Amino acid sequence: MAIEIKAPAFPESVADGTVATWHKKPGEAVKRDELIVDIETDKVVMEVLAEADGVIGEIIKGEGETVLSGEVLGVLNEGAAAAAPAPAAAAPAPAAAAAPAAAEDKILSPAARKIADEAGIDRNSIEGTGKGGRVTKEDAVAAASGKPAAAAPAAKAAAPAADAPVFAAGDRVEKRVPMTRLRAKVAQRLVEAQSTMAMLTTYNEVNMKPIMDLRAKYKDLFEKKHNGTRLGFMSFFVKAAVEALKRQPVVNASIDGNDIVYHGYQDIGVAVSSDRGLVVPVLRNAEFMSLAEIEAGIANFGRKAKEGKLTIEEMTGGTFTISNGGVFGSLLSSPIVNPPQSAILGMHKIQERPMAVNGQVVILPMMYLALSYDHRLLDGKEAVTFLVTIKELLEDPARLLLDI
Amino acid sequence: MSQKFDVVVIGAGPGGYVAAIRAAQLGMKTALIEKYIGKEGKLALGGTCLNVGCIPSKALLDSSYKFHEAHESFKLHGISTGEVKMDVPTMVARKDQIVKNLTGGVAALMKANGITVFEGHGKLLAGKQVEVSKADGSSEVLAAENVILASGSKPVEIPPAPVDQKIIVDSTGALDFQSVPGTLGVIGAGVIGLELGSVWARLGAKVTVLEAMDKFLAAADEQVAKEAQKILTKQGLDIRLGARVTGTEIKGEQVVVTFSDASGEQQLTFDKLIVAVGRRPVTTDLLAADSGVTLDERGFIFVDDFCATSVPGVYAIGDVVRGAMLAHKASEEGVMVAERIAGHKTQMNYDLIPSVIYTHPEIAWVGKTEQALKAEGVEVNVGVAPFAASGRAMAANDTAGFVKVIADAKTDRVLGVHVIGPSAAELVQQGAIAMEFGTSAEDLGMMVFAHPTLSESLHEAALAVNGHAIHVANRKKR
Question: From CA B178, how far away is CA A369, in angstroms rounded?
């Protein structure tokens, strides 16, 4: 099947770009996610990756030619040298080695080799849950008995979001559409979260005017200084969250059996909505990231989510999550905690409301904040204090600078 | 103008000096603070382990074991000697030389890695500043990006037996006797008490060990502890369990110890008494009131899984924090912290830290004991291979003890390896490496082990787990 190789969607302020370097020639084999061509714009060089395994066909736009956002650059002929496809990027697998390249030989323990051979199973087809993806005896036993030990068997590329059924006028029939892997996994985890945790939500509201003023004043300078990265709201929220987590490490902790695991780092998950559903890529060590780095990181995730390019590593872990329902217009909601984390911050729509300030009625841009948390670990006092800390940091950003 | 460092380490023991070396390797400007003055009257790095712990005790254990072998076993091999004598000052001097070599070695490593060593008492102030107080009364304040507290531990003191380092000694004093005591009392049948008791027992002392607990070596697998008690008692150690020391009285050159056990109150007189009832973390004058670092309820510095304290940028490792008080645990924590400071996501596996008791036979283990697994409700299969069945052990005239492998009954994954016998520590390390990769007993049974070796007994024990050991009669299941 012929796939069009297209220029990516350019950032708003960029009109066109130039084909900088073709890394592959016509006739050359390419694997999925391999780099094919670089497109240079005023602001940044963007990479175009292969959407599937295959062979480069025709090149339509050569090096040095001008291209518009989304324009077709060439053709990729799918299949040909394709090896077994990597599993769906969406299904979070237990071990980091959930994407084995089938061409490589897996490492099996001696007993695993014996069991695989006795059961007539291809050694390389067994999912390894051991260190570094090694196949343990348990994995082989599970594969031999037909049920997967822990990880689901390698799936084909994720199916597109289930088509919403279209009913002709006058229809009263039902249409059954199986859940996509992503949907099923998300469903499972959400139910798990609700039934395992003692989950509840505390609410507060924040006056967004100080941040909005800050943005208005500095957004052009910010964009100029940071190579086109725009100053949004999320970076402030991430920063405030990181600061609050540092002050109350228990919110950054998780329950593991009978232990409380205090994580010495803040990996902040940012919930992103993609065509396929909700994904939560993680900003690693957000405590060391500047506002610009956070904004760039989130923008990067957003782009990757849209293109379906988020890796499993990018979506696992996380010690705390921020979810923003405001982009769709939600005024107030109670997010579900992302296990094994212990809390999640929900942001909402900024809405101008009349507020009482020093006895006067002032119109302020307000946002409701929600913090859903695991009461097994956090008491009301800690959760409320944490949310209040975030509110205070956001309403007076100087506090972030002064660490008060 | 105070000197500024990327990493300041307080304490140059196996935790501190290793952390300093790793930090320096990762390109960080590192300082190490230590105050211990060695026997030569100079600053001695290496902490308790090198100076008055692991290393000197092993030197004495080996020397005394050689004497024991010459005295008891040479004739079995056909070797006849005149009267075998032990010159204690020479033995102790050899130990001191080894300590000197090693502490000198650590000092050389500091130079080679460009680590600045400060001689003095280190104290953490607020804002990650560290004050170094020197012996001459002067002091200096260092500014640090990161601080690693590695102040270690010291012997616990008990009021009924105050240590004078002459007749009533702690482990440090017990390493420096200049002659073999005629009678030796040891309070505490833990690792340190048994090791030190063994040294002098082999050289002819009549040793009595007074242990307050009713259970012997409670942390070890019960089957191993039982075997150990039997063998050590046969070696001449008089082990009294449930014996609580209530008082001591120095009478001339001896000490009268009053204790009570199941038979009531009793008294015994010894030439020397070793107090080895445990060790406690050293935090005296380590933390300024406003440093921000918190202690837990047992007096250890509170840290998370990655040894970070309650103050960002301040870490604590080794005996001063929770976990097994072992030099290798401290060292690996030191490496972990140095790497995490550098931004790596290093973690440590606290579940596979081997423990060793250097008596003879040596006792070692890694993973869980059978009694712990039973208490957790885990069904297990156990394989035991006695060294009496090992050709290598017979040739070495060292056949006491066994290798025990415990595996999950459902998955066959090895959950614990316990050894009492020759080279126990080395065999257990093999088990630990395999367990790190999720080995099953069957896997170990399928690997080729050299013959004739002591390691083979690990192989046999693994086979025994599933009932098909070759050189040991397999127990019929049920």
Answer: 73
Query: Quick one: chain A helix, strand, coil %, rounded to 5?
Result: 30, 25, 45
In chain B, where the domains are located:
4-155+280-350, 168-277, 361-465
| Closest partner CB to B308 (pick from A112, A134, A264) | A264
Shortest CA gap B154–chain A (Å): 28
Chain A interface test: which of B303, B344, B349, B437 (most A C-beta within 10 Å) = B437
Distance CA B125, CA B111 (A): 27
Across the interface, whether the CB atoms of A109 and B308 are under 8 A apart is answered: no
Residue B190 pLDDT exceeds 60:
yes
Q: How far is A388 from chain B (nearest CA, A)?
A: 21
Lowest mean pLDDT, pick from A263-272, B100-109, B377-386, B407-416: A263-272
Q: What is the pTM (predicted TM-score) of this model?
A: 0.62
* Mean pLDDT, residues A281-286: 92
Architecture of the CATH domain A2-78: Beta Barrel (2.40)
pLDDT confidence tier of residue B183, bands split at 50, 70 and 90:
very high
A138 vs B contacts (CB less than 8 Å): 411-413, 438, 440
What number is the average pLDDT over the span B260-281? 96
State mean pLDDT over A86-99: 37
Record the tokens describing residue A312, joined without a space: 């499993």
Concerning whether B451 is annotated as a catalytic residue, the answer is yes
Q: Among the options B77, B328, B360, B451, which is catalytic?
A: B451
Q: How many CA atoms lie within 13 A of A52 on its CB side?
A: 18
DSSP H stretches of helix in A88-180: 110-119, 137-144
Choose the CATH number for B168-277 among 3.80.10.10, 3.50.50.60, 3.30.450.20, 1.10.1740.10.
3.50.50.60
| Identity of the residue in B340, B343, B438 whose CB atom sits nearest the CB atom of A136 | B438
